[in-house]
Design brief:
CATH topology of the largest domain: Rossmann fold
Order of helices and strands: HEHEHEHEEHEHEHEEEHEHEHEEHHE
Number of strands: 15
Protein name: ABC-type uncharacterized transport system periplasmic component-like protein
Helix content: 40-55%
CATH class of the largest domain: Alpha Beta
Number of domains: 2
Largest sheet: 7 strands, mixed
Pfam families: ABC_sub_bind (PF04392)
Shape: globular
InterPro entries: ABC_transpt-TYRBP-like
Structural class: alpha/beta
Number of helices: 12
CATH superfamily of the largest domain: Response regulator
Length: 332
């Protein structure tokens, strides 16, 4: 047998051993997933789909939901419950989703305090806000495709020159301020403001006032904003109200907002966040040091157009603007 052939066979054998070792680790692993929000929130469902696309059949998954989008004051208690669950499970790895899971759970309980690898995703803040990367923490940042969405909207809405960003006031909204400050000078239309109301009545008043100032509104999220009766509303309920008050197209960043009536978006993908975090965790469980796992930011985007909104506003874009975009109707 030639020396070259021996090297090939030896390399093949090593590869089999490494793959078998990874499969053995993965098949036996237990992973705790801590979500910042509730299990009905569409974003969390997208992230969960991404995690499960990688880990189903390889790891046993346990989920803990902190529910901070509905009840912000319960966050510390829910984080403590998640830590108690962590102690009970003694998982091989943890995936922590969105910012509140970092500030309330990972940083106080796990960062640099345990050997358990933690992969985060859906994080809007800069990583150094949480002291990341840490000895046992890495993951994936989340950034909105604001530039890309406005540029896309200009292909659909003639003479789009100004826009405003609106969303429910929250810690996540405050974190978006930094992204906006970093990018604002590059936006293809003038940003006239970033508005963060705390209640529905205030949001509707702002939308009505912006009708004479902005050509479109970038709708981020108003999920679980309260109405005059203290009822917590979903985005599916709020989008039509904001659209009616503004009277012009809304643009956004999530697929479920497009289904609710927003005109278009270059969406960020929760599935990308979840699958990348899961892949990173598998690398660590297979023997890669956490220090060798770089922090990334989301790269993928998908263009979506609501054709119901197109018809409502009498918009007739050039065929090239529709190429490669997913076309959906409100409520479907």
């Amino acid at each position: 047998m030639s020396g070259k052939m021996r090297y090939v066979l030896a390399g093949f054998a090593v590869g089999i051993v490494v793959m078998a070792g990874l499969a053995a680790v993965a098949s036996a692993c237990n992973v705790l997933v801590v979500m910042s929000y509730d299990d009905t929130y569409p974003w969390e469902q997208e992230v969960r789909d991404g995690i499960e696309s990688v880990l189903n059949g390889r790891c046993e998954l346990t989920y803990s939901y902190m529910d901070t989008n509905r009840y912000s004051d319960v966050g510390p208690q829910k984080a403590e419950e998640a830590y108690n669950l962590y102690q009970q499970l003694q998982p091989d790895g943890v995936i922590a989703v969105d910012d509140n899971a970092q500030s309330m759970f990972v940083v106080p309980y796990l960062k640099d305090k345990t050997q358990t690898p933690v992969m985060f995703c859906g994080v809007n803040a800069e990583p150094d806000v949480y002291g990341y990367p840490a000895s046992n923490v890495s993951g994936m940042l989340e950034r909105l495709h604001i530039f890309e969405t406005v540029l896309f909207a200009q292909q659909l809405v003639p003479n789009l020159k100004t826009f405003a960003i609106v969303q429910k006031n929250s810690s996540t909204a405050e974190m978006l301020v930094q992204q906006i400050e970093q990018e604002q000078e590059t936006y293809p239309a003038k940003l006239i403001g970033h508005y963060r109301p705390t209640a529905l009545a205030e949001a509707l008043k702002i939308a009505a006032e912006l009708k004479t100032q902005a050509d479109v509104l970038f709708y981020e999220t108003f999920d679980k904003i309260s109405d005059e009766n203290g009822q917590l509303l979903t985005d599916a309920e709020v989008v039509p109200m904001i659209a009616a008050a503004f009277g012009k197209p809304l643009i956004g960043n999530n697929a479920y907002h497009i289904r609710d009536g927003v005109l278009c978006a270059v969406i960020k993908l929760g599935e990308e966040q979840g699958s990348v975090a899961a892949q990173k965790l598998l690398q660590v469980l297979g023997g890669t040091p956490v220090s060798d796992i770089p922090i990334e930011r989301n790269k993928k985007g998908k263009r979506i157009i609501n054709v119901t909104a197109l018809r409502r506003f009498g918009l007739k874009p050039k065929p090239i603007a529709l190429q490669g975009a997913e076309l959906i109707e409100t409520g479907k």
